[in-house]
Amino acid sequence: MDRYLITLFFIVTLTVFGQTTRKYSNEFMNIGVDAAALGMSNAITAQSSDVNAGYWNPAGLIHIEDNQLALMHSSYFANIANYDYVAFAKPLDNESAIGISLIRFGVDNILNTTQLIDSQGNINYDRISLFSTADYGLTFSYARKLPVEGLNYGVNAKVIRRIIGDFASSWGFGFDIGVQFESNGNWKFGVMARDITTTFNAWNINKEAFATIQNAVAGQNQELPETTEITIPKLQIGVSKTMIFHYDYTLLAALNLNVRFEENNDVFSSSFASINPALGFEFGYVDMIYLRTGVGNFQNELQFDNTEQLSFQPSFGVGFKYNGIQIDYAFTDIGDQSVALYSNVFSLKLDFSIFR
Q1: Alpha-carbon gap, residue 164 to 172, rounded angstroms
Q2: Quick one: 7 exposed, middle or buried, by C-beta within 10 A (0-12, 13-18, 19+)?
Q3: What whole-number distance in Å separates Cα of residue 168 and Cα of residue 259?
Q4: 337 pLDDT exceeds 70?
């Protein structure tokens, strides 16, 4: 089976490069979920083992022992955009588990000023209306143990829905595959292949609405945009180790290598692939109180004098868990430390064992 998955991955990868793709497609699905993970700069692929594993690595769902529910909310760009997430997972038996999650990233109450000026050149504020743009990602997850001890796999089936007011909307579909392996000595390894078959989005554009703005600016907006969008595969490779001190204290160290099969501004980049590392730490006390930090999103940013400067994204977080209830907080951004505004992210996880 491992040989089949590897062969499938490379066939899909080679096929993708023969198609027209966009470098950044469905990026809202790459922001991340769970304040605990965001506090570690998303270095979570190897050790994700709760309801949130449906997003980070579905193979980790196999570790849940009872039904779990997760909720998260965060605001970006000075509360202009809202990012919400809800997930549920349950074990089927000792060998398998399932999960479902929903992500919404939206900007509401946007001013539509396309009709502000009428055909005679008069400004009429009564012609201003409001609209919203929202992206939805619905994921169905399945995890199962493999015959090799400590080795698990998981798959995701994703449905993408994107809406831009009455102007355009799209449907998209894709798949993820994840594998985790736990060895002796508290070492964990994980691989997550996102959009393994490419995620295909088909757009439906309101031609009547487009016609009203088609000639608003001379030489621009003259043709309908493309109606198909392909998200190319991404690979996340992770390793982590948990160290225990004096029984009550733990330190988790995790490293992720995030690989995109394209050339961009990542710290390691070539015409074939780009690699962006992320490093995260979690200090725990009696499996109740957690302090987290991480650094990731290393980018070679072009400056005004045509030189490059390395930027990065630090993050910090805290967590509290008691009797099946876990509350986490992260202080992070979705850009780098000097450009994007920092965001406060809160998440809640509930283990249904609290009701038993």
Answers
A1: 15
A2: exposed
A3: 31
A4: no
